[in-house]
Every structure is written in structure tokens, then in C-alpha cells.
Amino acid sequence: MKRHGDIIRAVEAKEVEQWKDQSDLSKFQVNLIDAKAPRHRAAWPIELTAAVEQALANPNPKAPEGVTHQDWQRVLQARNNEAAYWSAEKLRCLGPEIQPGQTIAAMDDILVRQPQASKWLTMRVARIATTKGCRYLSGTGSRVLRQLSLMLFFCAGLDDWVTLLGDGAEWLRNYFETDLSQFTHKELLLDWYHLRRKCADFAGMICSTRDEKKALKRKLNSSLWIGQIGPAIKALEACRPLTKNESKLQELIDYLKARKTYIVNYNERRLQRQYMGSAHAEKACDLIVAKRQKNRGMHWSEATADALAAMKTVMLNQV
Fold it and tell me: Is residue 58 a contact partner of residue 67, using CB atoms and an 8 Å limit?
């Protein structure tokens, strides 16, 4: 197993060096997994479709019971923009779609236990997707970042739109600002799930009572959902006189300030059916690493863990 993994990584390293040494990369082709019809999760049970159709027929349509306010706003947005196209059956399957000329890259890291006590290995995993298909990457350190940069160049060039999704970690922000500096059109989004979870975790450490925690979470979520950092920080500062852990309060404030550029209007992106989450990276971590290496009692050397990830990545890429 280790021998096969070493061979795969050696081939990847050789390819990266070959690509870097070429002045004309137009002859290189990226082998993508053919895109399939997306399996959008239904926004509501199919039994509600008739009720939705009836509600949309009213002059002032209101969401039927069982359809959330956020889903309903997206339904109304799509129906108003393309009333002749979006039937009620299609409206229940709304979801983000990759646009022509756009490349989506979701990236995350995952920890694997090593034999030494309290030692962990960081594996990095990425999934790149275009309208034509997708491809997985995995590895350790800067090697996988070099692969990702080249893959983005092959898929998008320097002028197409690149959307990078992740949890806002420092290494990911540094990669976006330095390695992708030559890309003309790019954006890095702090995944809404990670942002919301971070605020929820810190709210429990900041607030003294359950009611205070709920109130703070509600204020933070309502502000950050529309990309407003100022009101969120103001709500945190209001907690300072009564907080049980001022250091954690300040840590969350610093966290939001450091990622201000990458916190967007998630509500608007949802209405426009644009990507705002890194679920593809989370799933890639599960497929490439977690299912095999994160079971109870397991620990791995760096060489073996990386070899397993390399073999699984090749299988997923169907090469």
C-alpha cells in the first residue's frame, strides 16, 4: 500500500514540475469526472407542491405550512424572474448551480491521529468543479496547494471566475491572497455553516445563562446572515460587562474582524442560487480520509496516511 501511494505522489510531483516548466500550457488537458445531474435536496415534501402552486396563484402569496421563510423567498425570487419557466415542481428543487465560465473549489483540512501521544497529522483535501465535471485533490503541506493552483489555472485560466469555499482558516486565507494573486476574478467565501457554528460555540463560553446565549446567537446570526459585521461586533461588545470569559469574547471579535472581507451577504447569495457552503470539501474529507482513517483506536504514520489518501483520490478521479 505504501509503495503504491509513494508512486502516485511521485507521479503527481513530476506532473507539477513539468507543468511549471512549460511556457505554453494550452496543450495540457485536465481529466475531470463527467458532471452528472445534481441531486438537489427537495426544499419541501412533494405532497406540498399543490399547496405551493395554490399559494403562488394568490395576489400576495404567503408560504404554506411546511415551507420555510428562506425557501419561500428564494421561490418568489425565481418565480418573479422566470415566471414562464419555474413550475411548482421545479421550484421545490432549487439549489446552487455552477455558471458557465465559473470554477468552484472547496477546500478543507482534516486531522489524523499519529502513533505518538497527542500528535496529529493534517491532511488537506479539495474538490474542484466546473460545468464539465469535477476532480479531487489530497495531500499534505504545500504540495496539494501547488496542485490546486495549477488545476484552477487549467480549468479557469486567469480571467474566468474562481470561487474558493472554506472554513476561513489562516492557511486558506494566505493561499487565496498570495498563490491566487494573478487570478483576475476570484472570491473567497467563509462557509456559512462554519461561521454559524463558531459563533454558537463561543456564545456558550461567553454567556452566563441559557437565555443570554440564545439572545446572543440570534443577534449574531441575523446580522452575519446578511453580511453585517458591525452590528455583530456591537452585540458582542454589549456582552462585555456581564461575560463570564472576556478572553473568549475578544477572541470571537478578532475572529470576525480578521475574516471581514470573506463574510458575504449569505441571504442574497441564497436568493440568487449561488454557492455559499463548503459541503463538497466536507464530503471529500469523509470519502478520502475519514471513512478509512478515523475509526476508533486507529493511528497512522504520515507515510501510510498519505498513501491511503493518494490511492482513494485516484479511485475517485477514475484515473
Answer: no
Per domain, the residue ranges of the chain are 2-15+98-190+277-317, 46-91, 193-268
Residue 125: all three cell numbers together: 483535501
Instruction: List, in sequence order, the alpha helices (H) in the chain.
Output: 2-21, 49-56, 69-81, 88-91, 143-156, 170-178, 192-206, 210-224, 229-238, 246-258, 266-271, 279-285, 291-293, 302-317
Q: Do residues 188 and 166 touch, judged by C-beta distance below 8 A?
A: yes
Query: Is the CB of residue 207 less than 8 Å from the CB of residue 243?
Result: yes
208-257 residue pLDDT tens? 999 999 999 999 999 999 999 999 999 999 999 989 999 999 999 999 99
Cell matching residue 62: 404567503
Per DSSP, helices labelled H in 225-293 are 229-238, 246-258, 266-271, 279-285, 291-293
Q: For residue 176, is pLDDT > 80?
A: yes
Q: From residue 89, how far is each of 82, 188, 238 by CA, in Å?
A: 14, 33, 46
Q: What is the pLDDT of residues 71-115, one digit of tens each?
A: 888 888 887 776 656 777 777 777 788 889 999 999 999 999 999
- Name the helix (H) or strand (E) containing 102: strand 102-113
Q: How confident is the model at residue 37 (pLDDT cuts 50, 70, 90)?
A: low
- pLDDT bracket for residue 205 (50, 70, 90): very high
Helices 229-238 + 210-224 axis angle, to 10? 160
Query: Contact 192/274 with Cβ under 8 angstroms?
Result: no
How much is the pTM? 0.85
CATH 3.30.460 fits 2-15+98-190+277-317, yes or no: no
C-beta of residue 294 within 8 angstroms of C-beta of residue 282: no
Residues making up the chain, counted from first to last: 319
Give the span between the Cα atoms of 293 and 286, in whole angstroms.
Answer: 10
